[in-house]
Design brief:
GAF-like_dom_sf, about 30% helix, alpha+beta, single chain, 6-stranded antiparallel β-sheet
Length: about 160
């Protein structure tokens, strides 16, 4: 963990995000959330969504940052691991992660939260940082809480088909 990164007030961010997501529309809300996190959570170089639009494949959704890899299969990378296992992936050093996909060579650590709707994986929220060990457990819990706000305030359609 990088000891110099500022503490993030996730409780405050949760209240702000709840107020920001004033529509049930998934495109609007995921776009707003990607921009909000990118602006409010320090030391990120990418924040965005990958959405499952076909079986075992994630497709790029709303994001902030450099152009991104697309598509991502469930068998590849940190996003694929989160999708496959339906478990949050917090990786201190992406270069040590088996099968890591290097979309941006500057990225050093990653946090990926799966989004489950109606017992199905809808997609993942992916955060990248140029700092190794950027994401602590408190960041994981805070970002998972922000994802719950999104899930509670958004109609996420089944896009596979």
């Amino acid at each position: 963990m990088n000891e110099t990164h500022p503490t993030t007030d996730y409780a405050m961010l949760k209240r702000q995000l709840a107020a920001l997501l004033d529509t049930r529309d998934w495109v609007t809300n995921t776009s707003q959330m990607a921009a909000f996190i990118f602006q409010q959570v320090p030391e990120l170089n990418w924040a965005g969504f990958y959405i499952q639009r076909e079986e075992r494949v994630l497709r790029l959704g709303p994001f902030q940052g450099q152009p991104a890899c697309n598509p991502i299969e469930f068998e590849a990378g940190v996003c694929g691991a989160a999708a496959r296992t339906r478990q949050t992936q917090r990786v201190e050093d992406v270069h040590a992660f088996p099968g890591h996909i290097a979309c941006d060579a500057a990225s050093r650590s990653e946090l990926v939260v799966p989004l489950i709707s109606n017992d199905r994986l809808w997609g993942v929220l992916d955060l990248d940082s140029p700092l190794p060990g950027r994401f602590a457990l408190e960041d994981q819990e805070g970002i998972e809480a922000l994802c719950q706000v999104l899930m509670d305030q958004t109609d996420l359609p089944d896009l596979i088909g």
